[in-house]
Structures
1.
Amino acid sequence: MTALHPARTRVAPSPTGDPHVGTAFMALFDKAWAARTGGAFVLRIEDTDQNRLVAGSEQQIHESLAWLGLAPDEGPGIGGEHGPYRQSERLETYRPFVEQLIADGHAYHCWCSSERLGQLRKEQETNKSAKTGYDRLCLGKTREERAQLPGFSETPVVRMLVPDDAPLMFTDVIRGEVKAPFPDDQVILKADGFPTYHLAVVVDDHLMGITTVVRGEEWISSTPKHLLLYRWLGFPEPQYAHMPLLRNPDRSKISKRRNPAARLLWFREQGYLPEAVRNFLQLLGYPPAEDGVEVATFEEFVAGFSWDKVATTGPIFDVKKLDWLNGHYIRSLDAAELTDRIVAFHTERGEWDGSIDRDVLHQAVPLVSERMVLLGDALPKLQFLFTDGVEVADDARASLPDNAAEVLDAGIAVLETVPFDAESIQAGLRAKLVDDMGIKPKFAFGPLRVGLTGAKVSPPLFESMEILGRDMTLARLKALRATL
Ligand code: GLU
């Protein structure tokens, strides 16, 4: 195989709220391609829309990418040779390119007020005009000439002069030959002096040496504008990889408004492990490394990575698959590591307090890990280990057999003397209750479980007794006995 040229990729989110899961999806493929080719993965913050900025959003982007193991090699606060990596800090960079485009006749000033543009759009809609978009009223006019006409605004924008032969076809590494619609005379510099996305993305991708532009398929229709800018500015074109849009199980586009899982922070809040989320994203629109083997490390994903394996139809965002993966990764952690993750999870939620003994949790976590889906599933199942006594639930009390008092008395007698490890406890109780007294295991151990945990269903009984210790175990059984 020929050596791959080191790729430079980037993810370019706008800090307009808490990060979208799509940002992580793009970042995963960006990072994989950079890793596959020995290149670099860049984070660029696209904050040119000053009205939509949300404080803290950039920080959340950094944190959530790092959490997933997808931290960039270059970016704001990280450094790199192509900074600054925030577009708001690059305003002076864009200006000469705008001037060059105007001087070369590829761009022009437009003083049309937003009222005029709104009216124009409405007229085009009512008349069902074949020609839509800007009508070039300002093209070729000086400021003075334009000021004589209605709908004039003092501060102009700059628009692209899109020629009739604008390139509409391009090659996409996922989709092959793609045809996009003919573009409008796109604004590239806004009245506030900030560039629009279209200009900034081309200038920055070029100056940052980006070789492969990985982004959502919603940007396909913008690509002809970008190709024109590349051509006019004399920049070599990058490779394009337009990723499929993630979809809800009903095939609608995944959005933060309709699906909580569209928020990247949601996964951490819910108690998913980052390795499970990363593995889940690897399977969206991308085949498993081997048929039927869905669990794969990032390194395994990278080793076989190829753009032509990416699906072009929107992958379904199926949280059930994620739940399964999360359970798998939970069970692959050792008890100490799983305990740390559970403690961190509850600490982040402000739910960790002195009532929970970490060592007890560490001992008990293997009893419940088999049935855990989320990190938050352990504590509720183990709550009875962290309280002085237990309150017996109504259904648990109702489940007690008629001879519960007799069972408890015999059980208590055994537990007073038996060595207090799970195995001896089980052997001792079984010998007395099941073998000697002839009680069916269900009725022999049921009352003990209710006394110990307050519930009909609990983690394994004998191990729970061992963890609670002899004194506490006896105290609980006696407490229940006293109520019968
Ligand atoms: N700022 C754009 C976004 O958030 C980036 C698109 C691109 O990657 O070119 O979708």
2.
Amino acid sequence: MAKTALAALGTSVFSEMTALAQQHSAVNLSQGFPDFEGPSDVVDDAVAALRAGHNQYGRSLGVLPLVRAVAAHSKRFYDIDVDPLTEVVCTAGATEALAAAMIGLLDAGDEVIVLEPFYDGYPATIAMAGAVPKVATLRWPDFAFDVDALARLITKKTRMMVVNNPHNPTGKVFTTAELDAIAGLCTKHDLIAVCDEVYEHLTYDVVHVPLCTRPGMHERTLTLSSTGKTFSFTGWKVGWATGPAHLIAAVQRAHQFLTFCASTPLHMAMALALDRCDHAFVQTLQGQYRARRDFVVDLLREVGFIVSVPAGAYFCLASMPGVDDDRAFAKKLVIDAGVAAIPPSAFYSEAVDEGRRLLRFAFCKSPGTLADAAGRLRRWAKPGDDGDPRGL
Ligand code: PMP
Ligand code: GLN
């Protein structure tokens, strides 16, 4: 018999929608992966690492070049001092870091505060640890942060708060004041913060501030990141956690038995890529993504959606007046328009009705793909003799 808490979560909505998009030859704006290649020198470095014989298990906490590159990256971008030997653990993507954090830090029955809409990996990994999620809602359309609602969730059993900044799926980037409010609760109630910052370099006109830099947070924050987004190689699954040695040691206890280490040659290549990742690289990346975001925001508005403009990450949440069943609408959009989006009710456990009015569109796609999606959505939205073809 399957573990009840996990069985209840079913199949990931990402697998489901990508399969549906393939089945109907739809333009896939559902699952968040780039449909273009990352930098070719990074691929060359991976080939060289394979040829150089970096093909066996690596150091469990991460190969030395990568942990050093991670520490140097934290210093370069945020002026954070990270000890590469004790304060970094490299994992198979941020996903494994998340699972190792939950399994390594939580006991059965511990309570964990999460903000919905959430990345679906949070409730799943909390369930793996036998812990219990307590959910506060960021509400459409501005996803404003209500510190009192968060405070009300805290009990004697609360051990951890999970924050995702920049935020998937809303595109929200937390302000320093919001981060300080979270920091205030964590320090007051002695909570561990797990801050998922995989989209740290994807912000548009706002600055990303790591939660661990706020007062009292260094010693209690585990920061997760991944090169999947920054270098457009989501399939490489190169991620890590950084934080104080006592938290990293707890994550490592789980990591050593989950995977022991991740792909050695890809970690070697990513160490070099991370060393080359400077402010100019990030500015170029942000410029490209800002153009994609603006294109998709304008397009969605043109075809009748109400859009919450994302300040970060590479997703756009949008509502269509009259829609209250996101799953049915997402399926209809695949079949009628040939465009796939994510039905985000899967990212809610409390305000599920809020999610039912929305769709999430990923804009980490090439200009050609976005133009194709635009053509399809415009044809779909154009009223014909029979009335509104969207069936609304
Ligand atoms: N956190 C968030 C918020 C994400 O959107 C994702 C998905 N890309 C991950 C974690 C997982 O990252 P990775 O692919 O590195 O495992
Ligand atoms: N993070 C990606 C998204 O939000 C998907 C990750 C996955 O497929 N597990 O679309």
